[in-house]
Amino acid sequence: MPHRWIAERSDSFDSSGIRKVFDLAANLENPINLSIGQPDFDVHEEVQRAGIEAITSGKSGYTPTQGIPPLLEKLQAEIDQRYGHDDRQVFVTSGTSGGIVLALLAMVNPGEEVIVFDPYFVMYEPLVNMVGGKCVLIDTYPDFRIDVAKVEAAITPRTKLIMANSPANPTGAVASAEDQRQLAELASRHDIALLSDEIYRHFCYDEAFSSPAEFNEQTVVLDGFSKSHAMTGWRLGFAHGPREVIETMTKMQQYTFVCAPQPAQWAGVVALDVDVSESMNDYRRKRDKLLEGLAGHYEVTKPGGAFYAFPKVPGDESASDFVARAIDHGLLIIPGNIFSRRDTHFRISYAADDAVIDRGIEVLRDLAAGS
Questions:
Q1: β-pairing, 237-242 with 220-224?
Q2: Which end of the chain is more exposed for a tag (fewer CB within 10 A), N or C?
Q3: CA–CA distances in Å: residue 47 to residues 28, 64, 172, 268
């Protein structure tokens, strides 16, 4: 029977809960979709043209595993200017999610512990389990800030890695420079690897972005073009960190993803010169619109970045039940238990047209009032 052929590692996680929400809503007509974790603006025309030109000029084959030289050189120059680390190397990954897989394969042995902040990006725990690691969750409710004392208390002789994500999915929380410094110094002091997922780096609305790599030269950073340049389907990311780690991740890519898509890499060369500040300013405005609309109806920590808010469900209702009621009203949002041990909050993505956000606010107000 086919079920006998399924590897046990797949039993440690279920299909994405986000996909389950989509399945529940499959029969909705004209849904109010505030669930999607991707930008609602188009890829800039010059980036599109670069991708098309790559295809029409025959640049569709494999590339070196680490990426095409023009993109690597441009990324390396930018990273060298930002950090000035002698040993920091970059390579191109098949999406930032691909970078997470490679980092865990390269650094985590079976039985080793990985510290993750709860709430967390939905892939973190399953991928840690997939490589045989053990997730140790640090609760960050109610304000979703890093408490370094909690992290230090969770460290054991088996701790191998700390995974950080700022700006964060699903909360939109942005770690302050001081919090990043303390976390980076803690990792260095205990000789623990630090992995910083910075895919939302450009989406900081109230303060400048800060990376733990500014304070710890051994930090491995994951980044990419999916969110900042609306290139989610192009599968173009990059990672940078200590040479030995990056070379190991590159080796792992040879035997998994092979390389990032070549046309997307040529588009990335152009994308690095695109000014995305106008889009970021628009998302700041969308965030403020959403917060204003929910004020007085929901308890919500102001998100400083990304394009998500993570409100608390009113009363004692679970987020799962609340989201089911929302879907009955045509509104697609994501229950917090997909990202967390708790089932008290829900994720809203305001990467949507203003009219959709306004419709969503209206339904959420009705739900809070008990309609």
A1: antiparallel
A2: N
A3: 34, 21, 27, 7
Find tokens 């089932």 and name the residue.
Answer: 343
Cα–Cα dist 79/92, whole Å: 13
0.85 surpassed by pTM = yes
What distance, in Å, lies between the first and last C-alpha atoms of the chain?
48
CA distances from 175 to 150, 165, 169, 171 (A): 15, 9, 12, 11
The answer to whether the peptide bond before residue 242 is cis (omega within 30 degrees of 0) is no
Residue 115: alpha-carbon gap to chain centroid = 16
The class that CATH gives domain 45-271 is: alpha beta
The enclosing H or E element of 233 equals none
CA distance 94 to 103: 12
The reply to whether domains 2-43+276-368 and 45-271 share a CATH topology is no
- In angstroms, rounded to a whole number, what is the distance separating the alpha carbons of residues 324 and 347? 13
The answer to whether the CB of 140 falls within 8 A of the CB of 149 is: no
Enumerate the domain spans of the chain.
2-43+276-368, 45-271
CATH architecture of the domain formed by 2-43+276-368:
Alpha-Beta Complex (3.90)
